[in-house]
Amino acid sequence: MIRTPPARPLAFALALLLAGCGDGDADRPLAPAQPITDGDSCHVCGMLIADLPGPKGQVYLTRDEAVRKFCSTTDMFAFLLQPENENRLSHAWVHDVAVTPWSRPADDAYILASEAWYVVGHDQRGAMGHTLASFRERHHADAFRDTHGGEVLAFGDIDLALLTDLARADASMQPGTGNGMHGGGMHGH
């Protein structure tokens, strides 16, 4: 009679082998948001970030310890949604504008971007025109929307089509180009 080895030790050995193949990212704590310094420039547009209004963003990609800083949440999403970046996100940070001034968000007000609520189509201007207002709590996003207009979205609801609509609306708000976006819809969201 042929005796086969028990499956349990073989499965355990295989699990240990596969665990050793990972890069350990799951066990590593998330890199924290970094302070915005006077010399920091936006990874997308190159503008100096420190004195610009509105919530900012910071991104860490997988297998990369460098932080990429953005002058606005809109520029951060424009970067994240590019085909070469959309599957490389480790984590990102945005300001919670419920607890920090819009005109100069504080370095201690960052929250995970993936857990934030965003208001789009509001009347507040950010670094490059419209920016997505970010909040830790949904009720703060709802209150901002009630005061400043717009629509509340989750992280996963933001896509390139929405960002394109926002950019077009900003362009139409330039002097001599129209009335702005408050009369039109927002990409079906």
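That was protein one. Protein two is written in the same sequence-then-structure order:
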Amino acid sequence: MTETPNETPAESTPDVAALQAEVEKWKSLSRKNEDRFKQASTELDGFRQSSLSDHEKALEAARAEARKAVVGEFGTRLAEAELRAHAAKAGVDLPGLEYLNVGSFVTDDGAVNGDAIGQFVSSLPKPVEKPEFAQGLGLGRQGGTGVPQLTREDMARMSPAQIVAAKKEGKFDALQRGEV
């Protein structure tokens, strides 16, 4: 149980290259086993399919079709939700989902393709930001009151009753302010 005094720590540790070679050997063996398993699984599925009766084959086909339909439906719903979430996060407006082919964001196995959604959302134009405050400040009067204004010449042709009525309607406001 005692160590020999001549042995150094470098001699007791294995070589790194030897360890790497051992790792590669086990990886290759593992890959071979996986390939054998896949091959055996496909053979087994083939034997099962060949041993099924016509009724059982039709039942399997109907199950596969129903599974595909359900996965497709819920895949598109999930893709719609992902689109909305990505658009909200990016701060862009989505076009109406009725105009999009949402099924193109769903893979054959029903999973949502997040990369395709991200690329699509990033291609959408950013909304133009409106100024926070009114931009016409300090420019003076910007438009009238909406009431047509009369001039001194118009007033000269009017009767006193018409002048009083026009003044009540605000038709002489610009004249009183000295703008006309």
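The chain has a mean pLDDT of 83. Keep this in mind for the problem set.
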